[in-house]
Amino acid sequence: MKTLKIIQIILLTIATNIILSQPEFKLAHFGNKITKSEAQSRYKYDDVLLTIMEEASSNKLYILTETPETRYAFTNDKDYEKFKSKHIVGIAIVTSKDQADEIILKSDKIKNQNLVYFKPIDMFGTKMLLVALNTDEIIDALKFEGFSNHMFNKQTKTFDPVSKEELSKLLEEWDLKYDTKILSIGYSGVTLRMNKLPSDKAAFVQQLNSICPDAIAQVYMSEEKMWKMLELQKIITLWWD
Q: Which terminus of the chain has fewer Cβ atoms in its 10 Å neighbourhood, N or C?
């Protein structure tokens, strides 16, 4: 039974990396290198956070003004330009999964305004792109990553867009209820650590299905397996096909 659980965790990890990874990723997508002092003076980044990121990347910090998918988050040029005018940027490094986890844990203890998350660069999760945004707003992170997904409406028999506003509000609500931490954000998925598990499982599943009906069936195969994985890892992945 223990061996089976280990196999389940390995398979789920690979599946999660496939969902969130970007096979077309290239170093050129980073844009330009940036120094710590430049990131602090131009974008008000926290000194401690940047020092941690420098140490984990041999002083190789890159500036992201957007991702290859950012434009997909907007239905028109006006909204896209409005978002660009906020000058949301990301300081990025390439690191290992263990280092990415460690940096995110450390960033929790720092009083800063930088939302930190990672994205697998490959399906096996051997390399991670760790990103620290110059904002702590979840809605900004979703737009920066080009989040643009749809879910099937059983009543109207149509595919309706997933509201980034509703998703960000729900994630903020879960943070208050379950002490969550965003680990990974991609254009088609979000992964969270849940330090407290829901006591009202039915209510949680209802909320989950209202915003991400694919999560249980396509990521975990069943509700029972989802709860088992949550108890083992305290991590949940939301994915939109």
A: N
